[in-house]
Structure formats: structure tokens, C-alpha cells
Write a structure and sequence with these properties.
Mean pLDDT is 89; it is low at 151-160 and 350-370. By secondary structure, the protein is α/β, with parallel strands linked by helices. It is built from eleven helices and 14 strands. The chain has two domains: 3-61, DNA polymerase, domain 1, CATH 1.10.150; 66-362, TIM Barrel. The strands form three sheets. It has a ten-stranded mixed β-sheet. Strands 1-2 form a two-stranded parallel sheet. It has helices spanning 10-19, 26-36, 50-59, 119-123, 131-148, 178-189, 209-218, 232-238, 247-258, 280-289, 315-327; strands at 3-4, 60-61, 66-72, 78-83, 89-96, 101-104, 108-110, 125-128, 165-168, 201-205, 222-226, 266-272, 295-301, 332-334. Bound molecules: S-adenosyl-L-homocysteine and iron/sulfur cluster.
């Protein structure tokens, strides 16, 4: 069988070389070629002997998902729609900012956890992404960003055009695709691959407690938890997995995680839903809830989608909610929305593609994670 080398991390690639009768250290060379040079062609790997290149060309491929469309917003935000076969598509979004470039990565096609305000959740679960499909999003982003950085058409500087941060906040629940996500995280962190700092790679979860404990042991990176409600009764409705892992268990798992995490706080995401979870009373209850858990808040104005049944909180209510948290001493960011053409926000990546050729699209994105 032909092996797709994008599916392999350092260890499994070393095993692969042993299996084909080669030295395991070849894995490091290969990782560099694949992930740092961004090549998919064994013929370009000039420090490998010709016969090894030929052998690899017979046994293996380097294949990322195919780019179906490539949107560039006026502010430089870029969205790729990627085909993962059988008419399934996923999206990744690149958000350039002053000192960093953040890629929002998907982990599943659809999601089984059925949060009621999430369009991915409404789709239901289709399948887990492979390692190649997860890391392939980063591979493609780096390759295309690098290609475009030679163009000086935009005012975005070259340093902002590379991926320095990854947030697992695209489609799907990363901890429900644990093994593949951890392998992809390993590649993101590996010095022979992307060499990203643990602090700059964030897993966002709706709260799968046992998997969060496993992540702590296997690959602690920065953590974001989708809280969205200050009590179990409301969270049970919005985030149904709460019935299985209620808030006291989730917060205890967060505190365990922080003992080894690369950052000394958890980021709590809180989607702002008009009349549902955005009152002064909710804010006060939230402060009580998290008092023993070092954290920051990221308030996310709800991104509406057809048939959602929810409305975005009024700007004034978001401001009041934020101020109450801030007055209690918390660091709070409010995710900015850029434009109202809402089909590409992180965590809401199920929008339809209407025009595959247009160069600009407005996207309500701004990650304020790090
Ligand atoms: N499954 C993971 C990561 C993907 S969702 C999780 O739930 O954390 C990334 C973030 O976007 C989560 O905080 C999620 O709750 C939020 N989100 C989902 N749908 C949204 C919507 N319609 N508007 C605003 N935020 C949304
Ligand atoms: Fe899944 Fe996250 Fe959407 Fe919930 S918010 S349905 S966990 S992708």
C-alpha cells in the first residue's frame, strides 16, 4: 500500500524507514523536506541518494487535502475550503495580526457533540480527519502564504504572513479525535517540522474530561474551554456534553491541566447569546464559578446561521458583561467581528461557498487567544 507521509510524525516515520530497510535518522531529513520546505516531490530532496528518492516515489506520497477555494478578505484574513473526499469539505482560516499569524484548524468533518448554537454541531458527525488532513491544513497554509508573500499588493508585512500560532477551533471537537490530533500536535511542535512553541498551539474543547486528562499527560499545549454558561442547568441545554461531564468536573480537570500547561491560565470561551446567557446575573454567577480556576475570558458574539433560533447579544449587553468580569479582575477579550457575511468564523465553519473566484470576502474573525 502507498503510504501518505503527511500521516507520520517523527516516531512513526522513523519506524517506516526501518520497515523499508533504511536508517531511522532519515525521518528527520524527510520531516524537514515535507514540513519546512513544503515539498511533495521526492525528486527535490537533494540530500537523499537517488536510489532512495526513487524507492520513496514507489512506496509513498505526500498528499494534503485539495484546495477547492481560497478567499482573501480585505484585512488579509484568508479562508481555504479543502476537499477531504466524498464531497466532504473542511475549512481553515488564517488570521494575520501585528505580531503573529494564527491558523484556525479543523479536526473533524461535522461534530457529534451537538452544541445547540453551533452550525457544525447541527450538521452531525461525519468522520474524524486523518493526521494528514489535520497537519495538511498547516502544510497548505504555509505553502500558499509563502507563495503569496512575494506579492507586495497588500500592506500586510511578510512577517505577518507566516503561521506562528495554531488554534484547534475549526470544525469538530479535537479531543474526540484524540490520537490523530495529538500526532498532528506533535508535528506542530517538532523542531524538524513546524517548531511552534507549546504556548502558541491551542486546543479548544467543549469539555471531554477524560480526554483532557490524557492531553495533559501526552501533549500539554495551551488550553481553551468552551464554557458558554455559568451553571449546569443552562450549560446542559447549550453544550449537551455537560450532562456527562458537569461543570465541577470540568473545572477540576482544568485545574489539573494547569499544573503542567505551558500557560498558567485557561481561556474560557463564552458565546454571547441574546437573552440566554448574557445578563448581569449570569456574569456574577460566572465569577463565582471560576473563582478557583486561573483563567481569562474570550467573549464571542454569536455568529448567526440560518435556522439557529438564537440572536447575537446586543453590543451594549456584551460591554456590560465584559465590564463586570473586568471589574472582578479578569482579563477579558471580545472577539471582533469583521463584516456581517457570516460564513467563516472559527467554530462556525460550515458556510456555503457561493463564489469560488471572488478575491474578497468579509469574515467575522479575530482570534484573540494569545
Ligand atoms: N469543538 C471545540 C472547538 C471548535 S468550536 C469547542 O467547542 O471548543 C470553536 C469555538 O467556537 C467554541 O468556543 C465554540 O463554542 C464556538 N462557536 C461555535 N459555534 C459558534 C457560533 N455560531 N457563534 C460563535 N461561536 C461559536
Ligand atoms: Fe462540536 Fe465545538 Fe460545535 Fe460543540 S461547539 S458542536 S463541540 S464543534
Amino acid at each position: 500500500m502507498i503510504a501518505n507521509l503527511l500521516n507520520y510524525d517523527a516516531k512513526s516515520l522513523a519506524d517506516f524507514f526501518v520497515e523499508i530497510g533504511e536508517k531511522p535518522f532519515r525521518a528527520k531529513q524527510l520531516l524537514r523536506w515535507i514540513h519546512q520546505s513544503g515539498t511533495a516531490d521526492f525528486g527535490h530532496m537533494s540530500d537523499l541518494a537517488k536510489n532512495l528518492r526513487d524507492k520513496l516515489a514507489h512506496l509513498a506520497i505526500i498528499e494534503a487535502p485539495q484546495v477547492i477555494s481560497d478567499f482573501v478578505a480585505e484585512d488579509g484574513t484568508r479562508k481555504w475550503l479543502l476537499s477531504v473526499g466524498a464531497e466532504n469539505a473542511i475549512e481553515s482560516v488564517f488570521i494575520p495580526e501585528v505580531n503573529r499569524g494564527t491558523l484556525c484548524v479543523s479536526s473533524q468533518v461535522g461534530c457529534a457533540l451537538a452544541c445547540t448554537f453551533c452550525s457544525t454541531g447541527r450538521q452531525g458527525f461525519n468522520r474524524n480527519l486523518t493526521v494528514a488532513e489535520i497537519i495538511g491544513q498547516l502544510w497548505i497554509a504555509n505553502k500558499l502564504l509563502r507563495e503569496n508573500s512575494s506579492l507586495s499588493a497588500s500592506d500586510v508585512s511578510t512577517s505577518e504572513r507566516v503561521v506562528s500560532n495554531v488554534v484547534m477551533m475549526g470544525m469538530g471537537e479535537p479531543l474526540a479525535n484524540f490520537e490523530n490530533v495529538v500526532m498532528a500536535l506533535d508535528l506542530m511542535l517538532d523542531d524538524y517540522a513546524y517548531g511552534l512553541s507549546r504556548r502558541r498551539v491551542t486546543v479548544s474543547t467543549s469539555g471531554l474530561v477524560p480526554a483532557l486528562d490524557r492531553l495533559r499527560e501526552r501533549c500539554p499545549v495551551a488550553l481553551a474551554v468552551s464554557l458558554h454558561a455559568p451553571n449546569d442547568a443552562l450549560r446542559d441545554q447549550l453544550v449537551p456534553i455537560n450532562k456527562k461531564y458537569p461543570l465541577n468536573e470540568l473545572l477540576a480537570a482544568c485545574r489539573r491541566y494547569l499544573t503542567v500547561a505551558p500557560r498558567d491560565f485557561v481561556t474560557f470561551e463564552y458565546v454571547m447569546l441574546d437573552g440566554i446567557n448574557d445578563s448581569v446575573i449570569h456574569a456574577r454567577e460566572l465569577i463565582q464559578l471560576v473563582q478557583d480556576t486561573p483563567c481569562k475570558f474570550n467573549l464571542i458574539p454569536f455568529n448567526s446561521f440560518h435556522g439557529s433560533g438564537y440572536r447575537r447579544s446586543k453590543a451594549e449587553n456584551i460591554r456590560i458583561f465584559r465590564d463586570i468580569l473586568m471589574q472582578a479582575g479578569f482579563v477579558v477579550t471580545v472577539r471582533k467581528t469583521r463584516g456581517d457575511d457570516i460564513d467563516a468564523a472559527c467554530g462556525q465553519l460550515a458556510g456555503q461557498v457561493k463564489d469560488k473566484t471572488r478575491r474578497t470576502a468579509t469574515m467575522p474573525i479575530n482570534m484573540e487567544m494569545q
